[in-house]
Design a protein that fits this description.
Strand content: 15-25%
Largest sheet: 8 strands, mixed
Number of helices: 16
Helix content: 40-55%
Order of helices and strands: HEEHHHHHEEHEHEHEEEEEEHEHEHHHHH
Low-confidence stretches: none
Oligomer: single chain
Distance between the termini: 29 Å
Radius of gyration: 24 Å
Mean pLDDT: 91
Structural class: alpha/beta
Shape: globular
Length: 405
């Protein structure tokens, strides 16, 4: 199965793959983002990259860019008033730019306002999206760029924060962009739904003061999630009139009371259904009540649970273009954590020692450094082929097949 390419061609391709998964990402400047972006000059030397949709949809931003930079825009405002340049004018324009950016740039908003717990240190840190999360957000943004409702099915293999970034994306829409925009979280059991909603509770506890606005455009000092009409399952974002509802396959009737725009269906592959309804019926009844316009979202995610079940059929329909859902899968070799160093002196020898299994992983898209890590991990943990593919699938086919009985 060895590649027909020369060693030099393999090394060149490997360098491209390695650069793609280790690329620098700065949510403040926008460098390294996978979302379509446009250069914007604060000054002639201070450059950031803002989402294309921000330029497309905001006339004021286009006007500033036509002046050359935000600083030059402020200078021309002063010239028009017949006064010397005032720094206050620039500061006001910069503040307006930041407010506008928070409404259009999810990655910037998340890093600026959201705190998460670092698994390594246990400390609260700004939410800087990892590569798999950035790839998923880029999918969301492609739907939004086309002014289409977001419809995505996610097959999860590793713990990379897919549920977290989905729920925080929902929170961004509900806190910054839309009022009266209700969401629902449905899982197999209610506690799973509560845990997912808890991400918003944590977000609200650490949200900066006066960074959210109520329905009248007034600042909200502290973002709060409050009970809705005494319900234990339903909460409302105070001042925004956005509901966050939870439900489960055990008690699905609770999802029929609201006009939902955002829908998170979690671990669908584990849904057992009820005596009266199959998972297909449950999902269809929930999805059927979700708005279909711009900024509506349905994200259906699960780990693979074998082939032939409902989630697998939905996945295949998305892959074949028979549904409106985008199929999103993140293979093990897309993570920068799973790499072992190979020196320049060793790389030729390493290529020569690759067997058919190694070349199969290369064809799936792995780097040489990733293949070396895969070998070492499999040996150190005494993993057989089936268990390794189950834990670290290289594509969606392995993910589903390796989870069969």
């Amino acid at each position: 199965m060895q590649s027909q390419k020369s060693k030099e061609q393999i090394k060149q391709e490997n360098a491209k793959r390695l650069a793609a998964i280790t690329r620098h990402f700065d949510p403040v400047t926008g460098e390294g983002s996978l979302v379509k972006r446009v250069k914007f000059r604060i000054t002639m030397r201070n450059v950031v990259y803002i989402p294309y949709t921000m330029v497309r949809d905001v006339a004021w931003i286009r006007h500033v860019m036509a002046q050359g930079s935000l600083l030059m825009y402020a200078q021309k405002l002063c010239d028009a008033d017949g006064v010397a340049f005032k720094e206050d004018v620039f500061n006001e324009a910069y503040a307006q730019f930041l407010e506008t950016r928070l409404d259009h740039d999810f990655e910037f908003w998340a890093f600026t306002t959201v705190k998460i717990v670092d698994k390594k240190t246990g400390e609260e840190i700004p939410f800087k999206l990892n590569l798999p999360q950035r790839k998923l957000v880029a999918v969301f943004e492609r739907f939004r760029m086309n002014r289409e409702p977001v419809r995505v099915i996610v097959c999860k293999a590793r713990q990379w924060g897919g549920s977290t970034v989905t729920q925080i994306d929902f929170s961004w829409v509900q806190t910054r962009i839309k009022t009266n925009w209700n969401s629902v979280i449905v899982a197999d059991v209610e506690n799973q739904s509560r845990n997912i909603r808890g991400m918003f509770t944590k977000l609200a506890e650490n949200y900066p003061e006066n960074m959210a606005y109520d329905m009248d455009g007034n600042t909200i000092k502290n973002l709060k999630l409050v009970p809705y009409e005494g319900s234990s399952k339903t909460r409302k974002i105070q001042g925004r009139n956005c509901i966050i509802d939870i439900s489960s396959t055990e008690k699905p009737e609770g999802t029929r009371g609201f006009d939902y725009a955002l829908c998170h269906l979690s671990e669908v592959g584990s849904w057992r259904g009820t005596a009266m309804k199959s998972p297909e019926d449950l999902v269809q009844s929930i999805r059927g009540g979700v708005k279909k316009g711009e900024l509506s979202m349905i994200v259906m995610e699960s780990t693979a649970k074998g082939v032939g079940n409902f989630f697998h059929r939905e996945w295949l329909a998305a892959k074949s273009g028979k549904s409106g859902y985008y199929p999103f899968f993140m293979p093990w070799h897309g993570f920068s954590d799973y790499l072992s160093d190979i020196s320049d002196d060793e790389i030729d020898t390493f290529i020569e020692t690759m067997d058919d299994s190694d070349w199969h992983r290369w064809e799936q898209g792995a780097t040489l450094q990733g293949i070396k890590w895969y070998r070492e991990y499999m040996r150190s943990e005494n993993m057989d082929k089936w268990r390794m593919e189950s834990e670290f699938p290289g594509d969606d086919i392995e993910a589903f097949q390796s989870t069969g009985s």
